Input
Amino acid sequence: MVAPKTIPQYRKLYEILRKHILDGVYKEGDLLPSENELCHLFGMTRPTVRQSLSTLSNNGYIRKHQGKGSIVHHLPREIGILSVSGTTSALGNRNLETRIIVKPVLMQWPSDFMFPLTELEKESGCIYMERVRFLDDVPIFYDISFIANINLPRITARQFENRSLFQILRDNYRIEIKGGDQRIKAIPATAKISRLLHLKKEQPVLHLERKMETNNPGLFLYSSIFCNTEKYSIFGRF
Amino acid sequence: MVAPKTIPQYRKLYEILRKHILDGVYKEGDLLPSENELCHLFGMTRPTVRQSLSTLSNNGYIRKHQGKGSIVHHLPREIGILSVSGTTSALGNRNLETRIIVKPVLMQWPSDFMFPLTELEKESGCIYMERVRFLDDVPIFYDISFIANINLPRITARQFENRSLFQILRDNYRIEIKGGDQRIKAIPATAKISRLLHLKKEQPVLHLERKMETNNPGLFLYSSIFCNTEKYSIFGRF
DNA sequence: TCATTTAACTTGTATTTACAAGTAAATAAT
DNA sequence: ATTATTTACTTGTAAATACAAGTTAAATGA
Output
């Protein structure tokens, strides 16, 4: 683990309020304390409080209304960075499991890679792995990940089962995802995909190709994700 | 048309920089003028300039780097609020066309509507329309729209061909989209969808169900969108 | 009683000031 | 010539202050 840097005040308040919303202290439709109340409660000035609320708003946790206040928005449940919301069953603490199909190995980048690569990335090779994620014992995501092998010592030796790749990168290498691009398509399931996701061949699956940016400039994470959207949908905000 | 309210300074600067980026004055990878330079150029203070840049960053037009500056990010092409990016051909000024399948009509909401509705919405009924959007004469989107009939006089009489629904709402009713939720699935094309999008039956299509929030609290736009993602992908940021 | 006005809240916009922290290029020392 | 160091720039964080504008409920008027 790596020593954390000093966390700014607005970030601390953001994390506190976010946790309270996710824990149900503030429920959907509730009014958050006003900006001035938060100032007094946490000993900050209004611009600092407003920065926290602005980030919460941008990330979809609240909606702000001039003259009224900040109202808690409904809560997406996140898996990795993907949000899913069930189309049939109600939200709840579902059993979530990750299974490794191909353990992390160091290899060359595929020649027809889905995103253009820099010279540095090409030279470094990539760490490759395949996982399937289950929700209530139903396979939902088949995830193929690529990371450039830049300053990631001993990563292939680490335990990935039931632990988020993002969490390992944050705890051990202090790498955080800052954002990214994605392409979304609907494709027919190949033989391999239908086998892994327990689908019939040619059945429609969602295909996401993602490039994620990190706080380490020049280091990107790439994922090709196949989703079974028969029972669950991908949920998003814009 | 409705008289516009006063537009805040940070919004003006946002629009100027956004237009310059879209027009290619600042190209991908370029460094924007520094915050202090923008202050002098536009006669604002740094917090105001920073608010513009922060919005640009949140909307994916730039990426900020401490110590370096603001760097122009690549540009997705937008159709309505959806962004598409070609998987084969290069970006360019494509021929974009909207064709009405069902003209706007006032009707009751479907009984099994995709989102829960408020009492006010149910009472008001909805304005319904169907459109298909073409890119280079290829049908890409089949869009079914629903709007609650709240304070929208004479909307069914207006011209919708080749003009964005969002633009009409903004110009005539001063309604702006502030954000929204969406569910994404991959489904097999029905007979109607395959006919409209020139696809084989059962071929995978992307299905988006969107609820869009407006600056008018209580007024939402709903869309059910079917996308042919064979040649183009839906492009997004997170 | 009912409608209007007022007052007390809320968030939105904007200025000014100060220092911290990251980057890159010019400068000095080896 | 090469390596450190300094310096000058960049964005990040934070405070204190002021007024505008939207919302709500209490106070006031007819």
Observations:
- The mean pLDDT of chain A is 87.
- Helices of chain A lie at 9-23, 35-42, 46-58, 119-124, 165-173, 191-196.
- Chain A touches chain B at residues 47, 58, 60, 63, 65, 81, 85, 87, 179-188, 202-207, 209, 213, 217, 227, 229, 233-238 (CB under 8 Å).
- The longest helix of chain A spans residues 9-23.
